[in-house]
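Sequence only, no structure available. Ideas?
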Amino acid sequence: MTGRQKLALTVIVAVPLGIAVATVGLNPHPLYRANPDGLATPPDPAMAFPDLSLVDGGERLSITFKRGPLDSLHVVDVATGQTLRRYGSNEGGFVRGVLRPLDHERKRHGVARDAPYEVVRESGGRLTLRDEAANVEIDVAAFGPTSYQLFSSLLDGSESPDVPALIATPASMEDRP
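Reply:
I predicted one. Tokens follow.
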């Protein structure tokens, strides 16, 4: 490599890279900063869960998930005590899949499993499942329209969409002990 090629490489690669590193490293107002858990959090923790009671048209429902016999799962309205949905042992795959990491976070933060969750639909249509006790929020729409409809139906009181099982048991497997 000639001297000119080395100089060109330095100017094209090293100088912009150095400027970028200096800009990020010397920024006095970072958007996020690290916390002891290793997660990025907003500088003001109150920003994580804004008060949606002030948002015009927002809806909120407090629910709990009760585990029953034979691995059943019940979605219960905290205010009324009414069971909104019942899932058998091989049903509710998406709901159970969402609960696994939420249960893990609750255990990590020392929060009881039966503490309420919030299903929140903002006036713009954004739908989230929030666990304010463990400081976790899940944007339900990120999992697709059926998942959005599933949690939206809890707020509306409408029928839950039919969500097929991800894995069907082949007929040849049903007879096995």
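The first strand starts at residue 33 and ends at 34.
Hope that gets you unstuck.
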